Amino acid sequence: TDKAERSNALNVAIDSMCKKTRDLRRQLRKAIIDHISDSFLDTTVPLLVLIEAAKNGREKEIKEYAAIFREHTSRLVEVANLACSLSTNEDGMKIVQMAANHIETLCPQVINAALALAARPKSQVVKNNMEMYRSTWENHIRVLTEAVDDITSIDDFLAVSESHILEDVNRCIVALREQDAEGLERAAGAIRGRAARLAHVVAGEMDSYEPGAYTEGVMVHVQHLTRAVIPEFISQVNIALESLSKNTAHLFDDNQFVDISKKVYDTIHNIRCSVMMIRTPEELEDVSDVEDEQDARSRTSVQTEGRTDRAKMTQLPEAEKEKIAEQVADFKKVKSKLDAEIEIWDDTSNDIIVLAKRMCVIMMEMTDFTRGRGPLKHTADVINAAKMISESGSRMDVLARLIAEQCPDQSCKQDLLAYLEQIKLYSHQLKICSQVKAEIQNLGGELIMSAV
Q: Is the pTM of this model over 0.90?
């Protein structure tokens, strides 16, 4: 018995170590992809600023801009090496390292060319020399960027990019509502840059496939982003900035701006979903490690032992898995919209926001159960989770009706009450369903009614 206890303790320790190692691996992957996403977002600005100062003969500013350019180069080289640490593609890693060495060697030469131009800004020979170095630098940066893209998982890149764009969209909306023109312009610029980078990466990925329904489906979303959504977004940003500059923000209807901002995120999400349509369940499982959705979990799971119903979900027929995957994808899309909305509110003093977040986390656990993962282990846990959502929904109905009663706008009041009727209906359905299902026990693979 003592030996069995020691063996059990060892197994627990091994499981714990495996979990911690997996968590560390996930954090490292996300951190590196974050670096890649940010560092290669706009690789030419430091060089263009340096050249512009040199053309105008601003010798005093050159040293400052040269230091920024040197730091920018070092960061690109560092991130390229980090990308290599994630990859198993030896040939690709060699190309990345070679390209990184080239820009590292080229950096001081570019700075010297800029210093020469600053000293003699009217010399055509010096101008031509600077132009040659600019062109050479941009070519090497293009090679490095493509080489890094080749050894980086596009699934990880898309997961991180989608997350960043959601953050940027939230920042845009908050900046507009706070009338922060500088913050709005900065966040909008980040969205524009990330969208262009994502479109370029996805288009490059599709070039590696034979043309067909899959590539056409992906490119439809990419072209919709670049040709329709982003131009419309930029137009709305310009209108908003003009309104802020003229102090007429109170006359500006921000609903259109919010709609197009969300459309940007939705289109990015659609691109990611279309790219991942051909992935296997194992590949989808691996990608989910990079996402943040698993960081916060509730305590809805009842502690149980033995073979779990959750594990059985992984043994479902492929047709069932595909159907579940579609429903999970739809839920995640709705969840992302909810995240974007509640991000702008302070949940420390808002009971409704706290309840909404709580219900969303429980629903995420239920969707995880359908994929054979997450904290819910047995059908009883899912039933308990449904009961908790029902109770939270009833509580939200009570709180929101208090707000509706005080609403002076009859149109808004009626809209809110209509939504509350839906919440009330769904909460009641969940309550009845959980009560009925709780009467059923899974015994030896056969379902029996406990009342019988």
A: no
